Amino acid sequence: MAEGTDQTAYLQAFVQGLVDGGIKDAVVCPGSRSTPLTVLLANRDEIRLWMEVDERSAGFFALGMAKAQGSSVVLVASSGTATANYYPAVVEASLSDVPLVVITADRPPELRDVGAPQVIDQVKLFSGYVKAFAEMATASTGDGMVDYAWAWGRRAAEMARSEPMGPVHCNFPLRDPLVPDLEATGRPMHSGHLPLGDKMPGVLLAPRRLDSEITNRLRELLEETANGIIVAGIHPAPDFNRDLLALARRLQYPVLADPLSQLRSDGTQDRLIISGYDAFLREPKVRAWLRPDVILRFGPMPVSKYLTQALNEWSDVPQILVDKIARWRDPNHARALNIVETAPSSLCRDLAEGSDTKDSVLRSGDWSRRWIRLDEIAFESVAAEGDGLWEGSVMAELARWLPDGSALYVGNSMPIRDLDTFWKASRGFVRIWANRGANGIDGVVSSALGASTKAGPLVLVLGDLSFYHDFNGLLASKLYHLPATIVLLNNDGGGIFSFLPQSSLPRFEELFAVPLGLDFSLGVSMYDGKFVRVRTLEQFREQMEASLGAKGLTVIEVPSDREQNVRRHRALWSAVGRQAAGMIENWEQEA
Amino acid sequence: MAEGTDQTAYLQAFVQGLVDGGIKDAVVCPGSRSTPLTVLLANRDEIRLWMEVDERSAGFFALGMAKAQGSSVVLVASSGTATANYYPAVVEASLSDVPLVVITADRPPELRDVGAPQVIDQVKLFSGYVKAFAEMATASTGDGMVDYAWAWGRRAAEMARSEPMGPVHCNFPLRDPLVPDLEATGRPMHSGHLPLGDKMPGVLLAPRRLDSEITNRLRELLEETANGIIVAGIHPAPDFNRDLLALARRLQYPVLADPLSQLRSDGTQDRLIISGYDAFLREPKVRAWLRPDVILRFGPMPVSKYLTQALNEWSDVPQILVDKIARWRDPNHARALNIVETAPSSLCRDLAEGSDTKDSVLRSGDWSRRWIRLDEIAFESVAAEGDGLWEGSVMAELARWLPDGSALYVGNSMPIRDLDTFWKASRGFVRIWANRGANGIDGVVSSALGASTKAGPLVLVLGDLSFYHDFNGLLASKLYHLPATIVLLNNDGGGIFSFLPQSSLPRFEELFAVPLGLDFSLGVSMYDGKFVRVRTLEQFREQMEASLGAKGLTVIEVPSDREQNVRRHRALWSAVGRQAAGMIENWEQEA
Q1: What is the residue extent of each domain of chain B?
Q2: Radius of gyration of chain A (CA)
Q3: What is the DSSP track for A352-378?
Q4: pLDDT band at residue B1, thresholds of 50, 70 and 90?
Q5: Which numeric CATH code is attached to A7-173?
Q6: Separation in Å, CA A49 to CA A33, A444, A481, B17
Q7: Alpha-carbon radius of gyration of chain B
Q8: Which of A260, A247, A282, A165 is closest to A574 using CA atoms?
Q9: Do the Cβ atoms of A285 and A584 come closer than 8 Å?
Q10: Four-way CATH pick for A391-559: 3.30.300.30, 3.30.365.10, 3.40.50.970, 3.40.1160.10
């Protein structure tokens, strides 16, 4: 090999950079062009390699892993359409702030667009969905080139996990020979020496803190406003929730806690945490009665359609949206929206501290009691309707007895909505995730299994279309003996459409529900999984208990009927609506 | 609904345009945002709807269908990551000239990038991989807007199938209500009246024809050069092959026929059609002995790595590349390359006609006999090594007795190479396809099943990794009872890597071969398919025969051992090399 073009040394420096950037896991799909990357990553004790074959599943596997551990995961693919299979996961990672370092092997410039095999244009392959794209130089160990490769490895890893986290893409033009020469001596090695020592991250972010004068004005506004609410969107960090709750207690504001805010399941139970709002805000009368005077909102929009609708009806109520970066996440285009771009935790602390002259703890609590009472009504109805095994009771049950330390991944469409409706805030500690960047039904199995490598015991609840969509994802559980419990809500089709106006269309079953009629037990066996079908709540509990203590994969199928499911949901909602309306009447009469 | 914003009328006009543009099939994935598109397409008798759930498989299903019928197929997805799942198929369609009209439903501008659910940036989602992207207007029936929608429907369908064919993408911002109002009267309907009548296409392409003076000079060059070869790359059109063969006979040039040129299997048998070159061009001595004086090449680069290498060694030999458009498909950057951008058929006819003063039929044929003899040697070795059931003999067998009118889809990695090595030109008529735009192992099952809707009986030969990758693709066979035979060459891993230098690396099995250990019989049952495992050639023949006459899906698994497979291939190649070298020696002595 010519001096100065040692591909192995060049890529070794890049991998050293990844290690120095804190990479501990790499999800790799086999390929020829990517050979030196695969081998050099496998060669590092600091990095655990996870092999996958379907790049789409691999992408989501890495996403779930990165989400669960909160730090960057590397994803490697060879050249060609293989790389395009990462697109769905890259889009989801971009929209949900998940740190991925996507590394694609490519043909060198002289073999592009000239009819050479397995070449596609990988430059900016993921368009605007990555935080950075680097078209890396062809291998060189000339002046400064080893430093350059090392710096990009470190930078990609660090950039991906800098706020807001997200995917970074490096495309490597690689030449033959592809098998790295690990024996060569006298190779220019990068020391990987970090300037501030091993324990210091490469990117030191000074915390953001609002000017104290502005903070004081915000505090005054809140303390002068008795009827305020806090809307807590998706948030991964339990630390933040402590600060948020302290502020809520001080202001005696109810906290409308999205199920993915972790507030309903992070061990800090408080009556101010309202989790039944999706049910009771369906009633227009309730929304009018609960109209607040100020809205303090954190993070992304909540899952609940009816909370979104309420926010729309309250769009002239002063709303303060706190976010790490000002992303204008407000589909209502509320007239009274303001954004505070800052670290949410420190803002909560600053707002909760301050002077004690107007101690809001002394507030009557009349306002928050309205919310608390309605929350009780919602869950009384859930308990009444929760009889027997159905899609709703699955979530209600899990909320009651999923063991501390469990992790729950939830599919999109109906499961996330059922989570919202049926998961009552509880004292248990369960981490809850869903792919809510783009709310796709794709990649859910892989995401959950990826998360299971960093948190567990893991339970995934999803519908049959979503299960089918990422059936390939089960391979990871087979290859790596990952313990996981999948609760399959099998209503043979797209259950959510039965709730929508589409359900009255001719050819509804064919065009929207699309029943697959698949006996999943066969496919699950192919992946060495255990499959059980349960018909009663008792069976469900028994099988869950057995599975949570077991190794490997268990799929617990809960057969469901789409029409009956809609009826039970509607019965619940109308019961909640009726009782809420009655309660308001009594309340007003008593007042 | 406000006058002038009738979404149904607007989309009806677009769908009318699709019909007028010749669309007959639409592959639709269910979704909420895409509801009006789905319903309005379903409403047209002219269009057959195919429902799929996994968009990635759906994309390849449409690709196979469009490839087999040679005209545009519509592909519909709802908003979100669903659309990104089309990326691999769109890339492949772009690189292999397959006409797709990709229609994605999107949120309207006011709901983009504001935290609304299931919204991703779909503008130019497929980057440079589409021939055209249209960000459609929001629905309007105002001045000229119905004409605009109609025109784009027609244009998208026509553009996709204009040469070079490829994918076109229309993104539709759609507002609630999504359920179309089919009962409304007084709606502005587009007549769909075509200016030149129903039978005339919307885009009339004047044929390209080289200036006769230049044609004459090319003819002279070829007629003066006895030792020329024709390299026929991937080409879908049997019509062209007749013209090509007439020219070859006139010039007495051997035709190195890529298996995807259809020349080996389009019923026009001729000794000039050389199909064993991948085996005998491995020998450097043979490449030197066969050095031509002119190369006439058609279409994309051939599959064969050794033909590519030979072309590289002959890069100073005048080479005339004929292509529909000048795409510089030459990874060798040959010094002596020239490109003729024209319709290949008419050029062949023009070159073959001309004056008869130098009738090349009178040539001695010594040159072409060299090639013909080597071709015989190659297939004598194939016959000798073809004993018993192994990966190589599967292709040799199929070449011998696949019935006339069959269609063969071949997976990438080893199956396409085995096709190249073992498929001897024969008198039978079998259409042969593979995804050779980007040579991915993804989407192959769906591509084949898509093709099966337009051609058949269909046989798909692929390896286990590729089968696993698009296992979801089997759903189409279940939903639509598609008759298909899948020959699964199961060597439990990536067989091609055993042929590469990677095979000597430590941890080869883990990092490259990646054996999955899947019992596919279980998964195939899930899709109502029949699964048989065969151990002998006789069993293989019997099961193939039974399957070709049967309805529905049959998977015939041929278990294979990777190491043994490599040994048998190498034995074959070395036998060919040995005998070729001996033959050359004799030939030279006799001369």
Answers
A1: 7-173, 212-364, 391-559
A2: 26
A3: HSS--TT-GGGS--HHHHHHHHHHHHH
A4: very low
A5: 3.40.50.970
A6: 18, 21, 15, 51
A7: 26
A8: A282
A9: yes
A10: 3.40.50.970
**B83 token code pair:** 């659309």
Distance from the first to the final alpha carbon of chain B: 88
By three-state DSSP, how is residue B528 classified? coil
Q: Which of B328, B504, B523 sits opposite A114 (nearest CB)?
A: B328
What b/e sequence results for A112-151 when a residue is b if at least 16 CB atoms lie within 10 Å of its CB, and e otherwise?
Answer: bebbbbbbbebeebbbebbbebbebeebbbeeebbebbbb
The owner of tokens 């057959």 is: B48
Of the candidates B572, B443, B336, the residue with the CA atom closest to the CA atom of residue B100: B443
Q: Do B472 and A471 touch (CB under 8 A)?
A: yes
Helix A366-385 × helix A391-401 angle, to 10°: 120
| Closest C-alpha to A29, from B28, B511, B223 | B511
The 10s digit of each residue's pLDDT in B308-348 is 999 999 999 999 999 989 999 999 999 999 999 999 999 99
Cβ of A469 within 8 Å of Cβ of B471? The answer is: no
Average pLDDT per block of 10 residues along chain A, 591 residues long: 74 95 97 97 97 98 97 97 98 97 97 94 97 96 92 96 94 96 77 71 83 94 96 86 94 96 90 96 97 97 97 97 93 95 93 63 79 96 86 94 95 96 91 97 98 95 98 98 97 94 94 96 98 97 95 97 95 96 93 76
Residue type, B510: E
Residue B360 reports pLDDT greater than 70: no
| Share above pLDDT 90 across residues of chain B, in percent, rounded to a whole number | 86
Whole-angstrom Cα distance, residue A253 to residue A238? 19
The fold of the A212-364 domain, in CATH, is Rossmann fold (3.40.50)
Give the full edge-to-edge strand order of the sheet including A458-463.
A431-434, A407-410, A458-463, A484-490, A553-559, A530-533
* Residue (of B302, B304, B303, B386) closest to B569 by Cα position: B386
Per the structure block, which two tokens stand in for A440?
A: 């796709």
Q: In 3D, which of B267, B260, B336, B242 has the Cα closest to residue B299?
A: B260
**For B476-511, what is each residue's pLDDT tens digit?**
999 999 999 999 999 999 999 999 999 999 999 999
Torsion sign (Cα): B366, B369, B371, B373: negative
> Which of B35, B124, B125 has its CB closest to that of A502?
B35
- pLDDT value, residue B483: 94
**In a 3-state reduction of DSSP, which class is residue B93?**
helix
Strand residue runs (E) in A258-318: 273-274, 294-298
Kindly determine whether residue A475 and residue B502, on different chains, have CB atoms separated by under 8 Å.
Answer: no
Residue B552: pLDDT band with limits 50, 70, 90: very high
Cβ-defined contacts of A197-206 (< 8 Å, 24+): A201/A22, A201/A158, A202/A20, A202/A21, A202/A154, A202/A155, A202/A158, A203/A158, A203/A159, A203/A162, A205/A162, A205/A163
- Measure the CA–CA gap between A555 and A541, rounded to whole angstroms: 13
| B533, B539, B542, B544: CA torsion to nearest 10 | 40
* B197 or B151, higher pLDDT: B151
Q: What is the pLDDT of residue B246?
A: 94
Q: Is it true that B7-173 and B391-559 share their CATH fold?
A: yes
- If one compares B200 and A452, the residue with the highest pLDDT of the two is A452
Please name the member of A331, A468, A527 whose beta carbon is closest to the beta carbon of B116: A331
ipTM above 0.90, yes or no: yes
Residue A192 is predicted with a pLDDT of: 73
**Which residue of B lies nearest to A303 if distances are taken between CA atoms?**
B117
Which of A81, A126, A301 is best to mutate for the B interface (most B CBs within 10 A)? A81
Asked whether B18 and B24 are in contact (CB, 8 A), the reply is no
